[in-house]
Amino acid sequence: TGGKTASKVFDFGKTVVVKPKGKHQATVVWLHGLGDNGSSWSQLLETIPLPNIKWVCPTAPTRPVTLFGGFPSTAWFDVEELSEDAPYDLEGLDAAATHVANLLSTEPADIKVGIGGFSMGAATALYSGACFSVGKYANGNPFTANLSAVVGLSGWLPCAKRWGKELEGVDGAADRAAALPILLCHGKADDVVSHKYGEKSSHALSSLGFKDVTFKSYSGLGHYTIPQEMDEVCAWLSSKLGLDTSSSSLK
């Protein structure tokens, strides 16, 4: 944009909400991958046994994507390649993370909130987790949501190298990072976002002072999700969000 200060306006798509089937204890925003939409994930999340979670599944803006030669697609931010070494579209990442925080801003104070996602959605979720720890976005605006959990499936941490400096300079950032539980899951046969990027992101988070990082690998798993992985997500979220898993939690 060569020195223009006006920020782009991003037009986010439709948000699908999966209401809790039991007592509402937590709200998780779930972010789809490149070219997908919120409703496809809402159908899967509708079926998993976490009755106390409200799932919010937004749809990314449709925009020209460099990876696709400028062809428009739903994307949380622009990418040249799906890896943690690619140049970053910080403006797009900030807009996506702000959209997520806004979706969580109306939740009651006693409801725990989290962010999860798949592929590029996982990258956006991890970026949001880093912004939460620093207390602000790359553009300097305050990050307002109080996150209790972050889940990334088949993803990576964007701009891993910039966070160290950011975290050092902010009071309370190290404590927020240390206390934020993060679950990363990745297939060893992923030919879209390489398993090594997930693994490197896990190491990067740990070295930045995120003390509660779990990394799970799945042999033979490509760039998709399987029931075993979603079972892992369910058990982890129940534990980290302190959900009531007894059968009486259903109405």
Automatic annotation (TrEMBL):
<dbReference type="InterPro" id="IPR029058">
    <property type="entry name" value="AB_hydrolase_fold"/>
</dbReference>
<dbReference type="GO" id="GO:0016787">
    <property type="term" value="F:hydrolase activity"/>
</dbReference>
<dbReference type="InterPro" id="IPR003140">
    <property type="entry name" value="PLipase/COase/thioEstase"/>
</dbReference>
<protein>
    <recommendedName>
        <fullName>Phospholipase/carboxylesterase/thioesterase domain-containing protein</fullName>
    </recommendedName>
</protein>
<feature type="domain" description="Phospholipase/carboxylesterase/thioesterase">
    <location>
        <begin position="15"/>
        <end position="238"/>
    </location>
</feature>
<dbReference type="Pfam" id="PF02230">
    <property type="entry name" value="Abhydrolase_2"/>
</dbReference>
